[in-house]
Amino acid sequence: MAQLTVPLPDASICAGWSEQDRFIYNRLNYYLVKMQIEYKQTWQVYANLVGTKKWQQNMGPVMRSVTKEPSPINRQFFNPAPITGVTKKDVIDVRERSTDDIVYKHRWESPVMNFLPNFQDFLTDHVTFANDDISAKLQYYNDIFIRGYIFGYSPFLYVANRDGGNELQTAQQGYPTYNYDVANMQTTLTGAGKTTGYLQAILPTLGNPGNLSLNTINLATTILETDLRMPPFMGQQAKDNPAVQNMYCLICSGEAYNQFIYDPWLLNHKNIELDVVKDGFKGSLFGRVTCKLEPLPIRINADGSIPDPELRELNPAAFNAGESVPNPSYVNAPYEVAFLCSYGEGYKAIEVGAPPKDFAKGLPEGFGAMHWNGETKITKNILTQCQDANGVTQIDTNKYGEHLQIIAQATYGCSGEQKRSIFPIIFKRWRGARVSQ
């Protein structure tokens, strides 16, 4: 019987032999009907709302971005002297501020594949499907890398209906260490930034009702525009995303958006002709905020840990053995995070470019070429296991070409040139009609 296993995140790059079970797929000795299942596509959200900048090679491992900073408006009244008196002057000085950025690198691999499943099995597109799956994960994880960077480095955290007011709190900043707990299907954050301990202290301060209400969004938008003086989307970013032209953007889950139909503020102030039962909720918020939905938002357990969104059904007796299904801990997590975004140049994704030319082309030409742009490759340049006459496992080259592996390597980077341009909103999850304010 095929063994069901869990995909392993952040494995050592020199991990041991991981050949895929040759009998994991269904074979023709069972009567099969090929089923086409349409999975809900997970599209990029954050990568489309931030700017881009190119990495400068051969300038060391750290990129320092320097930004000119105008002088502050340091008066509410302006009182020049009478023309007959002594003329006064302002001395205006322009300053610089900087941010340091580094580039990250990650690798992706399939298990080593043997030719036998493609020879004997009913479904023969295992290699193609595995390649497509890795490609989809590369795209999605790039998006949540940007999301994680913004969450970690945002200098503020908005706490919905915080006890005592002052919803916008100064927050810890930094890139945390992600500690994956595969057994419990959750992640704890340690080190810098908004760690699990920090979140544990913040969660009890969420007030009543604490959900993502229209009142909360309106207040958060006012703070972003007035207190933090961040403008809405405009210019090239708005041209690329017409829906956000001269608007602020709220990134939230479909669940949170669906709750707006029950919001007391909406029900008390809606147009008399608006039938929320028949027509539902649609359009921008207050004519100032547009919404973008993300399918798998950040959700937080009561203890501050971060549950994995999905898991694999490992019970071989289950009707859906081997299926990727929602993790109950993620489904039932009591807290969620949305992001309120102003103009799209506050954060920039770093485009690293190609590896150094001698490594990118390989020596001799094309042999062992180095790739780190996220392109998936099929390689047979692997070592295989075999047994000698005494049954002892030995290592041999893949000289007969019976095995292959799909590999990919990608670089990631993000620069927060104006970190207050986006801040996360932490709130209590609500579903259905409930009493709110």
The major pleated sheet works out as:
7 strands, mixed
The backbone outline, from C-alpha atoms, is globular
Radius of gyration: 27 Å
Low-confidence stretches: 26-41, 272-281
End-to-end separation:
56 Å
Structural class: alpha+beta
Which band does the percent of strand residues land in? 15-25%
What's the number of domains? 1
Q: How would you state the average pLDDT, rounded?
A: 81
Helix content: 10-25%
Number of helices: 10
Number of distinct beta strands: 23
Describe the structure.
The chain is of the alpha+beta class and 437 residues long. It has one domain (46-71, 89-363, 407-428). 19% of the residues lie in helices and 25% in strands. The chain contains 10 helices and 23 strands. The strands form 7 sheets. Strands 6, 7, 10, 11, 12, 16 and 23 form a 7-stranded mixed sheet that branches. Strands 4, 5, 18 and 21 form a 4-stranded antiparallel sheet that branches. A hairpin with an 8-residue loop joins strand 6 and strand 7 (168-170). The chain is globular and about 105 Å long. The relative contact order is 0.19. The model is unreliable at 26-41 and 272-281 (pLDDT under 50).
